[in-house]
Each structure stands twice: as C-alpha cells, then as structure tokens.
Amino acid sequence: ADKLQYFTWSGYELPDFNKSFLAAHPDGVEASIFGDDDDAFTKVKAGFRPDIAHPCYDKVARWNKEGLLQPIDTKRIKNWDSIFPVFKNLPDLQAGDGKVWMVPWDWGNTSILYRTDLVKNPEASWNLLWDKQYAGRMATIDAVHDTPVVAALLAGVNPFDMTPEQMDKVAEKLREQRPLLSNYTTDMTSVEQALASGQLVAAMTWNASATSLKKQGVPVEFMKPKEGMLTWACGFVMLKDAKNVDLAYDFINSRLETDSGKYLIQAYGYGSSTSSAFAAVPKEELDKLQLPSDPEVMLKTTVFTGPMKQNDDLAKMFEKVKAGG
Amino acid sequence: MSAARSEANAGGSWLGLYVLAYLVFLYLPILLIPLFSFNDSIQAAFPLQGFTLQWYATLYGNPALSSALANSLVIAAIAASGATLCGITVSYMDLYGRSPLAATISAIARLPILIPGVIVGISLLILVNLVGFGPSRLAIVLGHILVALPTTVVVMRSRFAAIPKTIREAALDLGASDWTTFRRVMLPLSLPAVLSAFMLAFLTSFDEFIVVFFLAGTEPTLPLYIWSQLRFPRSLPTVMALGTAILVVSFVIAGLAEILRHRGLGASRRTAAVNPA
Amino acid sequence: MSTIAAGQSLPESRSSPAFRFAMLLPGGLVTFFLILFALGLVLFLAFRGNNGSLLGAGLTVANFATVASDPLYWTVTLRSLAIAGLVTLATVVTAYPVAYYLAFHAGRRRGLLLFLVTLPFWTSYLLRVFAWKIVLAYNGVLNSALIESGIWSEPTLAFLNTPAAVVVTLAHAYAPFAILPIYVALDTIPKSLLEAASDLGAKPFTSFRRVVLPNSMPGVLAAALVVFVPTVGDYVTPAMVGGPASTMIGSLIQSEFGKANDWPFGAALSVCVMLVILCVVLVARDADRRFGSRT
Amino acid sequence: MAPDPLVRLDAVSKIFPGGIVGLDTVDLDIARGEFLTLLGPSGCGKTTSLRVIAGFESPSSGKVLLESRDITALRPFDRPVNTVFQDYALFPHMNVAENVGFGLSLRKLSGTEQAKRVGEALDMVGLGDKIGARVSELSGGQRQRVALARAIVCEPRVLLLDEPLSALDAHLREQMQVELKRLQSRLGTTFVMVTHDQTEALSISDRIVVMNKGRIEQIAPPATLYDRPATKFVASFIGTMNLLQSRFVGRDGDRLRFTAGPLPLEAVSETGEAPGEGSVRTIGVRPEDLLVATEAEPGTAPARVNSIVFHGRTLRLHAELGQGMPVVIDAPRRAEGFQFSVGDVAYISLRRGANCPMLSS
Amino acid sequence: MAPDPLVRLDAVSKIFPGGIVGLDTVDLDIARGEFLTLLGPSGCGKTTSLRVIAGFESPSSGKVLLESRDITALRPFDRPVNTVFQDYALFPHMNVAENVGFGLSLRKLSGTEQAKRVGEALDMVGLGDKIGARVSELSGGQRQRVALARAIVCEPRVLLLDEPLSALDAHLREQMQVELKRLQSRLGTTFVMVTHDQTEALSISDRIVVMNKGRIEQIAPPATLYDRPATKFVASFIGTMNLLQSRFVGRDGDRLRFTAGPLPLEAVSETGEAPGEGSVRTIGVRPEDLLVATEAEPGTAPARVNSIVFHGRTLRLHAELGQGMPVVIDAPRRAEGFQFSVGDVAYISLRRGANCPMLSS
Ligand SMILES: Nc1ncnc2c1ncn2[C@@H]1O[C@H](COP(=O)(O)OP(=O)(O)OP(=O)(O)O)[C@@H](O)[C@H]1O
Ligand SMILES: Nc1ncnc2c1ncn2[C@@H]1O[C@H](COP(=O)(O)OP(=O)(O)OP(=O)(O)O)[C@@H](O)[C@H]1O
Ligand SMILES: [Mg+2]
Ligand SMILES: [Mg+2]
C-alpha cells in the first residue's frame, strides 16, 4: 500500500520520466517538489523523510555528512554500466564495495547566454560578466555552485577547496561584479524574458535557455568560455530510513532506461547520464540542443561543479556580498 | 443642497480624480494578467502577438493543476475554519473569560505576525516530525492556522467588543448558561465578523507559499504549483491563464463576500440602533 | 462567612470549568503548541552553536556577538527598515486621500469603492508581483507608454530591479491594508468636530490640518504598522523585483537556513529582527496612546 | 415683527434629500440681546433652525439675515455666530486651553492677547484652574463649560446652544441654567438655545418658540405661553393641561361660560368674539386650577378617583368626570381634611379666577 | 428589618479593581411584592446593587439571600431574578416573539405552552399585535415594553429595572410609569427599580432607598422621605429644600422653636429630644412652605429678592435673608396682590402647620 516518496526539482516529477515504473506499480509515485536543493536539504534536515531525493552532485557530501543517506547497491541498478564513466567516477560518490551515494541521472551546462546583436564579438570568457560596458544589463545565477565558482576561476583560485585568503580574493571578485548586475536570480523565466526584451544583454543561464530563446528567434549565443563552461549533474540518493527500498530501486532503474533519458534530452534539453539515451537521439537534434553526441569528450573541457569544501562559508560570503557587504 | 455639501463637492471632485488615478494604479498590473493570457506568445511583452485560447486549453484537464487547486481549496477551507474557531474562542474568552490565562492566550495568538515565514515553516516542520505525521496536508493546515490566527483574533475581538455587554448579561439573566449564551446569542450576533474572519483566513491560506514549502508533503498547493511553474519559461502563459481564472473566481467570491459583509454591516447597524450605547 | 473571599474581586463569578475548558482548548492548543513552540525553538536555536545538525550544539551568545559586530547586518537591517519605512510612507500617504474620500465624499458609492479597493487583494500574490515586472520591464507597459507619448526616446532600465520597484510593488500589495484602518479612523471622527472647527472660523484646509489629521492619527498608525511589520521581513518581493541593491534582512535569514546551513545564526538574526520590529511596534503604540486613541 | 431684529429668518424652508421636511416656511425674528429658546418635540426642526443660522445647512428656500444683511450664502467660518454643540464637540487631541484658543488662533491676534482672552473666558465659566487639563479628564459639566468658553471667547453676535444641558444630571443642570442666564446678562450676547425640557425653557428664556413639524406654533414670553397657549399642541406641550370638550352656554361680560359634562367652566376669548350658542370648544384647564371637595356643592361635579400619585408638594389625582372624560387634578397635600382613596367620588370645581384658554386645534 | 424579607443584602461591599468602592457595607431588606426604588446621584452604587442581586457582580464581601437562602455564589442563570436593562438589551437577531420566548425556550416547556405565555406577556404590555415584528422596527417605548415582557414572562421572584424609562421622552415616560405601576400591582411581583429622577421615584414607589457614595442614606416611603428626610443629603436630593442654620430658642410642646437669622421657624424632633438652648441646628424648609408678603408683620423677616424665575404654576424667588443666607421661595403665581420685582424686599414667614425637619448632616 505504501507508495514511493520522491523529493525532486519541480518539473522532474513528470510521469514520462518513469513510464515502466508506473506500468509495474500503478499506484504511482508520491512526489514532493523543491525549487532549490539547498531548500530541499533544509526541509530534509528538519525531518522530512522521502524515500529518494534528487539533489545535485555538489550537495551530496553535505547530505551525507548529516547522515541522511544510505549507500546504493549498484548491483541492483540494471543500467549502471551504461552510465558515462565521467559520472560514475566522480569523487565523493563512492561508498566502497560497489556502493555509491548517488545515481547520476541528469546533467547540463552553465554558461553565459548573450545577445549577439547587442554584444558584438565578445571574447569567449567569463569576464564578460565583469564588463563595465554592460553595467546594469547582466544577470547571474544566485547559487553558491555557480557564480562564486566562476569568480574563483577568474581569480585563479580552486573553487572547490580554498584558503581563507583565497576566499577573500573570490569575495573581492564578486564585489567587483555586484554593481554591474541587474539581478541575482534563479528565475529563468524572468531571465529569458529579459534577454528577449533586450533588458539584459548577457546572463548566466543553463543550456536549455539557449535552445528555448533560439527557437523563438531571439539572436542569442551560448558562450564557450575559455575558462570552461560549468557542468552540473544531479541524481538520485536514497534516504537512510527509506521505507520503500525495493520500490526505490525499481524507480531508479526505470529512470535509467533509454526512453526516460531520451525524453529528458528532448523535452528539457539537458543531458542524460546514460550513453543509451544519447544513442537514441538523432545527431542533428543533439546539435540543435547544443549537446555533444559523446559527453565524455566534452566534459573533459568543462568545470564540473562538485562538492565544495568550504560550501557553507562560501555561501555566507556570497550572501554578504549580494547584500552589499 | 447644504453649504457644507457644496463645498465638499468642490474639494471632492479633485479628490475624486485622485481616487480614479489610484484605482488605475491598483488595477493596471492586475488587468495585464488576463491580457497576456490570451496572447499568442510565451513572451509577456508588447506588442501583442495575436489572440489564442491555447493556454486555457493546456490549463483544462491538467491533473497536477486540478489536484493542486483542490488541495488548496480543501486546506484553505479547513485552515480557515480552524483559525476562525480559534479566533472566536480566543477573543471571546479574552473579553469574557476573566482569567489571566485567556488574556495570555489572546496576546500570544496575535504574535505570529512578527515571526518570519521561514521560521514558522521550519519550526512547524520540526514539530510535525516530532509528533509523527510529518509534512502533509495536516501540517499545512496547522501552519496556516498559525499564520491566519492574528487576523481572525483581531476581527473577532473587535466584533465581540462592539456587542453591548448587556446583551450577554440579558441572556445569562434569562437563564441561558454560558454555552447557550455563546451559541444562541453571541455567535449569531457576530456572524458577519465570523464570515469575514473566515474569508480573510481563507485567502491568507490560499495565497501563502513560504510556509507551505516546508510543510507540503506530496500534494502541492496552488501557490506552490504556480511558483514551481513560474520556473519554466514555457509555462508562463499557462500560469497567466490560471491567474485569470483565479481572478475571475476571486471576483465572484469577493462579490459574494461583499454582499455578505453588507448584510453584516446592516445587521451591526441594527444592533447599534436597537441598543444605543 | 462570605463565599467569595475579599480581595479576589472578580466582577462576576466564573463560568463553569467545562465551558471554560472547551472554549480555551482550541486557542490554547494553537498558542501553546504551535506559536510558543515556534518562538521557543527560534530562541533556543539562537543560543546554540552551529555544527550543521538540526539543533546545533552547546550554548553560546556568539551568534548575537557576530550580528552585533558585523556592520553588514546593521546596514541590511537599516536598509530593510528604510525600505519598509518608505513602503509604509508611500502606502499611507497615497492611501490617505482615498480613505478620506471614502469617509467624507463617497456617499452612496462608498460600498462599491470599498469593494474595488479590496478586490486586488484577492488575487494571487505571486502573480501580482509578476504583473509588476511586466509593467516595469525594459519593454514593459511603463516604458512603452513613455516612448509612445514621446516623453522618452529610449526605454530605461531604471524601473525594474531597483529599490523603487520594491516600494511600488509593496505599496500596491498593501494598499487595502492601509486604506481600511485610516478609513475607519476618519469615519469615527464625529462630524460635529468638523462643524465646530468651521464654526470657530477655520477654513476647510485649516480644519483638515488641525482637527481631522490629528484625530485620524490612530488609524494612520494602525495602517503603518499593518504595512510595516510584514514588509520588514519580506524577501520574496525584493528578490523578484528588487535587484542587488534591495537585498533585505529576510533574504539573509532565509539563506542562513538554506544555502549557508547555519540555523543557529539564522535564528539569532531573526530574533534580532523581531526585537527591532517589536521596538518599532511599541514606539508606535506609545504614539498612538499619546494621540488619545479611542480604541 | 421687531423693526430691527439681529437675526431674521425670512420664509426659510429646508427640505432634506428624500423629501423630509426639516423646516417649513419659518419666519423668525431674533432681537438683539435676548435669550430665545426653541422648544418642541423630537424632530420638529429645532436643530435644523440652529444649523441654518450657523450656516451648516443652507435653506432650500428663504433667506437668513443678520443685521439686515443677507448671509444665506456665507460659509460657517465667515459668520459671526458660534455654537455650543450638544455633544460639546471638544477637540479630543487638544487640552482645555487649546480648545478654547482654537478660534482665536485663527484670527490675527498676538499670543499674549490670545492667552489673556482664553484665561478670561475660562475664569468666566469658573474653570480657570483647568487650563492645562486634557479634555478626557473633565466631567460632563466641565466639558460643557469648556464648550461654552470656546464659543464665547470668539465674541459672537449670536451664540447658538443645541440642548447644551441635556447630558447633565438634574442637579448640575439646574446650576448650569442659572449660570447660563447670568452669563448671558453679563455679556449681553444674543443666545438662541434649543431644549426639549419645558421647565428649563420656562425658567431661562425671554421668549420661547414652540415648534411642531417644521413650523412655528407660537412665539411668546414664558408666562404668556403658559397662560394663553395658542393651540392645543402648545397647551399640551407646556406643563400638564386638561383639554376638555365643552359646550358654550353663555356669556358673562368678558367671561364665556361652558360646561364640560357636568362641570361648569369659565374661559376668556383672546379675540373677544364668542362662539355660537351650544357650539363645542376645547377648553384648557390646568390641574392646579381644579379644586376637590368631599361634599357636593353648587358649581361642583362628581368625579371618580382612579389613582392618586404622590408628587411631593402635591398629590396628583387621575379622575373620571361623567361620560369617561378623564381629568387630572393637582391637590395640595397639606389642605386640611383632604381624605381620598382610589375609587372614591370627589367633587371638583374650577378655582375662582382661574384663567382657562379656549384653544384652537 | 422585616422578619422574612424576600431579598436580603447582608453587609454587602463591592470593591472594584483599582480600589473603587461600588458598595460599602450595604444592608437592605426587600419585602415580598413591594415596589422599591433606588435613588441617588450618579456613581452612588445603584446599578452595582442591582447587578449584585442579579448575579452579574459578586460582592467583595457580604451575602445575598433570597428567601433566607444564600445565593451569593449562584450564577445569573440560576437565580429566579430577571432584569430589564436600561438599553433594553434586546437580541437584534430575533424578532419580538423570539426575544420574549428566549427565557422560556431554555426551560422544559412545550412549544404551545411557550407560545401561549409569550402571547399573554405581550398582551399584558399591550404589544399583542407586534408579535412577529423585528426589533429594529419598534419605537423606543415599544422596545422598552418588549424588554419588560421578556423579563416578566419568566415569572421571576424579583424583577430588576435599571433606569428603564430614562431613554424615553417626557410624555411616554409618564405613561410608562403608570403602566409599570399597574403591571406590578397586577402581577404582585417584587420590583426593584433604579432611577435618577426623584419625581419618578416619588410617584411610583412603595419605598425609596436613597444612596450616596456606595452607602444607603435613608430607606422610607415617599411621603416620609419628603416630609422627614433623615439627612441633609436626602433633604437636598429630594425636591428643593432650604437648609437653614438655625439657633434653638425654646420648646413649645411638641414643637421646637428656632430662628434662622431673623426668621422664626418651628421644627419637630423625630426622636423627641431637644437640642440645648442656643445650640445651632440645620432646619429644612421647603420653598412652598415659605409665604411672602409686601408688609412687615409679626413673625415675618425681610429678604431681598435676587431673582424671580418663572416655573409655570409657581414663581421661584431666590432671596437673601439677613446675613447673606440664601433662601428659595415658591410663591403661587395667582395669589392676589403679589407684586415683586428683583431688588425688592419681601417679608417672608413660615406657613402655619408646615413640617420642618431637623437634619443631621
Ligand atoms: N441630514 C438630514 N437628512 C435627512 N433628514 C434630516 C437631516 N437632518 C434632520 N433631518 C430631519 O429633519 C427633521 C427635523 O430635524 P431636527 O434635527 O431639526 O429635529 P430636532 O427638533 O432637533 O429634534 P431632536 O429633539 O430629536 O433633536 C427630522 O424629521 C429629521 O429626521
Ligand atoms: N466595572 C467597574 N469597574 C470599576 N469601577 C466600577 C465598575 N462599575 C462601576 N464602577 C464604579 O462604581 C461606582 C458605582 O457605580 P454604579 O454604576 O453602581 O453607579 P450608579 O449609581 O448606577 O450611577 P449612574 O447613575 O451613573 O448609573 C462608580 O464610582 C463607578 O465608577
Ligand atoms: Mg436636535
Ligand atoms: Mg447606573
């Protein structure tokens, strides 16, 4: 009688992602949604107990530290082998003995989306978001694992492990950027509207925004900065006291099927973690979505946003900078 | 026409213009929502692209939406009933209970207006987890009772205070017990306030989403649904269509409430007329 | 022997315990279990150290020390107070004439007008804020109108993502909350006071300034509180329309509980904010008393 | 009408929205320095008359003249008229001095001059020591006096008072009546006061205006009104009066003889003309003008005593004369040998020399 | 005290929060079937007494007994006592019949029985035809009668009335006084009524309780109270009375002779004991017991007339006797040869047989 409790990003609870699971378990899934995996963590920390959740890779360490997770037995994951090794081999994912903390499912790129008509021949660099020419007409993503990471890259600091002095440098970089920005936001609806209207000329976005605006005929380009795009990956974690472990495995298996990944690519323009899904999507379509046919190659050139050792301090620092400190 | 009145009208016409401008300010943004809900573009910007009903079509028969809507209505109805019940009893006992406990409860009940929503959400989440039922509709209901309580207490308190104290004493004097007095005299007399307290609490719950985020289990409420949809640029026009539908429904509900309130005003005016203070 | 002890001067013998129990039960449960729990938890957390866990560890005043010593929190708190103050000022000042019209000039249109004024409050808050984005945007209604009418040749960015946008949006959102209390206060001013002023030789504006305005102050203060208290802690509106320059204390509290995962510090911050708001409320209440509130 | 009245209402009518008649073609002259009282039942237009004079209402037709100048269109703040409101209408946010000084502060007067006049006005009403008090700290009588001071400090040509004493208790009220009257003679200002208390009107006024349904029924000095009410309405409104349907039986010099059932009455005709023989008129007889005796004598008529009510100095008998005609008699308590109880028959007669008016309805 | 009173207040005190004294050790016996009136200035504790009897306030000390049973701790709804409130306190959401039937509906009575008794009660107050009317459609007097019907339908042992007539206009008020009195004799119920109107109290009551500052000053039937007030307070509160500081000059059988300045007075001593020769007492003299003449005669004293106020049937002279001793005289208007104006000297004397009480303060 118990249904699987699934805690995920809004929009990732769609039934099309797990058709086979639903066929086997007509009761379906009970999904709760979040809009930000920091908020999700807060809610879980306060005692919310789903069976599986869908945070991103960089948060796994924090969830784990809090003792919220149980390792996943990869033997029970049927398509484990079709997952690209880049994802499987991510550090911090291992729990030993073939157990892992998270099963990667979706990934995407973060970069600057800019208006080609309003920004003429920019240098392919994250520095565009620091360009005083465009003061007041740029926006960036309000998340620790995006903007501060870029600032660290530009400041020549390792984003994922830094000394306090280095963090000061990052803060300096961020402070430099604040007056130039129209907004810090995660609200892509507003960002896309603003890019379309010309209010913004450049903004940090996910690749799906690029596809969407191009489809509407807005002259935009998704930059390939020389410092590297950011890549994020998210996946499924199993909560320690999960009541429906069997259902959870069924669910993850269903999500790793080719159909599911293909639907993810086609509907949202984000990457799937399985090679079988990529194989099922025609090459032209992938091109249009600015996705490579072989992510393994591409992901070597991007910066993978993994767990940051000083995440909480960085977050505080970023908040303060945003507030004007 | 009286001199006072003709003078009033001279100043009144300027004021009238101002009020008109103010109404434009109030309604201009609101009326954009229906406008763009018929616009054939996912960009909410001028110039308009063409008339379409497709967003309403997407709206229609969207199970996630209708369940969120149903959820919101049920939660709002229950939370509003709970908050109104508490508002009635708390303010009644504050005014007539003559005990320090009742006065304390009434004072505390008006505090939540000071507590930031995040904190209400988190602490109630901790509480419901301790108690054992976890995030759920029940948890949201509790959260919304807490959020709406100050309003219902203030509304009910001022209404009870406006009933002449001799009315209650007359009932007691005629042999009605405390309970009968409350049920047959005080409650019917404050019915208009009960209704407006209920309406206000209902709307507070229907519009709230910060507390909901923490307390929602697997069934989102409508504001949570709207908020999650607003993250997807493609959903924007559909959300506008949804907003328009809500607008129309609230218009109808507000109209009904207004009619009730008018009756209520009439009733309280009658009370005042019958019992000169 | 008297059955009621002297000194215990209850005006009326008490109602039956069963009745009192039943009537106090719902409110008592909610206040003691929900409200006091929430408040108690915040207070408790505020004195804990952060170790990432649910309730933190140890007892400390370090959180408050940090709040007090870091000028940023003062800046942001002051900014929040300033923005909330501006919102309050804007709301009350623009609402006052409307309330005045309702009380003294509306006549038979009063019911309709009250209805119209309260109606926008019935629409979804998120959508109202979004609608303001459409109005204020680069190619939004306001810019388009200004360009159409030839006042400006090029759209301006000065509307959206500024503190001004926050003020306008919130002033809009809280309009009915300001109009109603002021209207009620104006409506309860005995008409004979106006006549007395006029009788003693006061011209209309003098009557307004010296009689109506002072006597409506309780309503103005009530309106100000109703607008001010929730806006100080708001973070949704600044995030949606405010831009970086309007970050308010609510956002900081929120992010301590979310992104920064430092609940004790977030709790301490919100305790401080609640205290500040409480002070403002007390000052306002004192002013209200001095204006001879009739409530 | 007086040749040069201070205030004149000239055919003033006031129709309120909804067709409610407030005043119906009222002509009224108010003389310089007089104490005029408006008396009448609730809703008869007393307040409306004052409001028209003060300028709070403009008449639907007719004119208001002040010293022969048409002031109908003047706004209240331009009229040299001040009002003491029934609810006092003191400004709750000002203290006593500020209230009293409000009118002066609007005139071009030096601060010291203002303070001096405020002090004088407060002394005049006996509140010199309350100058800094909050309005809420004052008792009803004190508030009333502050309202009075606030009005007189402006030195109005006419002072209007709308039921100024109705909120006070009987004792304070009597005291304030004396004070009002004294103040008026001292200032020489024209007072126009509304009251619904006829004893108050009788004892305080130079002239009384009795109103009914928006019209003036009679204007006269108190004694005239009491002795020679012009209409049944005035007669029944001022004091108690038996209105006896009586048949004219003949003339006796000045005096007209009637019988009310078995009771012989004598009346005077104001106009001198006598009614036709046998015709029926209403004669007004005051209760104190009827005498009671235990024995039938010539000129007496039997009446059954229905109730005896103790009124202090007198006993009020409610009795029934002949064919169910009720009469009220005030018998002095101390008359020797007075011994009646309910159910007894008393023999009543008109006191010799009693002045009974013949009334038109 | 009566051997078996219906209600007894036994040393009842009521101290309100803040130390305000509502009642100060009040002992009061109320007899079965009597019409008792509480009279006194504002704030003297009249309402508080009723509320203690009804059970809305519990005394700070002392006991309330009903037929010798201690009911001090009973809640209002357990006492066989009903109240007619000053503001009527009708339930605005119920019609007339529902209002009147409210008390019955709480007792175990059949519907037809209830309807019958509601009908009877309404007939009794003359509102049989208003049974279905809304409260808001009724006039003040009608509401007052509904409130009365609502209370009497419960057949209380005691009916309490708190200023039931004060909101009515003079005419209606007099009419309702008669009706109240009639109703009380018919029902035989004990009525306890509060009023601040002494004429009302004098004319309606079997006994009057005069209160002052939370204490009872005197309890007596109306005539006794009027003729033999026990204290200066009662004397000045009931009707008008000159309180003359007088020197005892000798005894004349029952009668004690005094002089107030030049004016010779006679008083009776309630107790029979006489004051010492030359000692000074306060003698109460009613204004109507003083006669005025234009010529000095033995037994008269000269007094300067300060003002003459028209009171309808009498003229009230405010005069000054000798050393600044003010006296008030009521002179009948129609006395032949009466001719005074302000400033004249009138010669006043005590009416033969007048009953002047000697007062304690
Ligand atoms: N503003 C108004 N609108 C409509 N009718 C009015 C208004 N003011 C007075 N009236 C009506 O005009 C009539 C006269 O009213 P007015 O106030 O002059 O009576 P009043 O003699 O002062 O009575 P009261 O003794 O009750 O004060 C009444 O019928 C009243 O209802
Ligand atoms: N609830 C209360 N709290 C405090 N003081 C009270 C309260 N009720 C009455 N008093 C005080 O007790 C005293 C007696 O009041 P009470 O109402 O009995 O007077 P009253 O004789 O009825 O006067 P009135 O003629 O003005 O109605 C007054 O001084 C009053 O201020
Ligand atoms: Mg009036
Ligand atoms: Mg009282």
UniProtKB/TrEMBL annotation, chain B:
Signal peptide: none annotated. One of its GO terms (cellular component) is plasma membrane. The keyword Iron-sulfur does not apply. Keywords: Cell membrane, Membrane, Transmembrane, Transmembrane helix, Transport. Pfam families: BPD_transp_1. The keyword Transferase does not apply. Its main location: membrane. InterPro entries: Bact_Polyamine_Transport (IPR051789), MetI-like (IPR000515), MetI-like_sf (IPR035906). Residues 69-257 form the ABC transmembrane type-1 domain. It comes from the Bacteria. It is a multi-pass membrane protein. GO terms for biological process: transmembrane transport. The chain crosses the membrane at residues 12-36, 68-92, 113-132, 138-156, 193-216, 236-260. It is found in: Cell membrane. Belongs to the binding-protein-dependent transport system permease family. CysTW subfamily. This is ABC transporter permease. It comes from Mesorhizobium waimense.
UniProtKB/TrEMBL annotation, chain C:
Belongs to the binding-protein-dependent transport system permease family. CysTW subfamily. Keywords: Cell membrane, Membrane, Transmembrane, Transmembrane helix, Transport. The chain crosses the membrane at residues 21-47, 54-74, 80-104, 111-131, 164-186, 219-243, 263-284. InterPro entries: MetI-like, MetI-like_sf. PANTHER family: INNER MEMBRANE ABC TRANSPORTER PERMEASE PROTEIN YDCU-RELATED, INNER MEMBRANE ABC TRANSPORTER PERMEASE PROTEIN YDCU-RELATED-RELATED. It holds the Pfam family BPD_transp_1. Residues 77-284 form the ABC transmembrane type-1 domain. GO terms for biological process: transmembrane transport. The lineage of its organism: Bacteria, Pseudomonadati, Pseudomonadota, Alphaproteobacteria, Hyphomicrobiales. CDD domains: TM_PBP2. This is ABC transporter permease. GO terms for cellular component: plasma membrane. Gene3D superfamilies: MetI-like. Its main location: membrane.
Automatic annotation (TrEMBL), chains D, E:
Keywords: ATP-binding, Nucleotide-binding, Transport. GO terms for molecular function: ABC-type transporter activity; ATP binding; ATP hydrolysis activity. It is a peripheral membrane protein. Residues 7-238 form the ABC transporter domain. The keyword Iron does not apply. PANTHER family: SPERMIDINE/PUTRESCINE IMPORT ATP-BINDING PROTEIN POTA, SPERMIDINE_PUTRESCINE IMPORT ATP-BINDING PROTEIN POTA. It comes from the Bacteria. It comes from Mesorhizobium waimense. It is found in: Cell inner membrane. Gene3D superfamilies: 2.40.50.100, P-loop containing nucleotide triphosphate hydrolases. SMART domains: AAA. Pfam families: ABC_tran (PF00005), TOBE_2 (PF08402). One of its GO terms (cellular component) is ATP-binding cassette (ABC) transporter complex. This is ABC transporter ATP-binding protein. PROSITE patterns: ABC_TRANSPORTER_1 (PS00211), ABC_TRANSPORTER_2 (PS50893). The lineage of its organism: Bacteria, Pseudomonadati, Pseudomonadota, Alphaproteobacteria, Hyphomicrobiales. The keyword Transport applies. Belongs to the ABC transporter superfamily. Its main location: membrane.
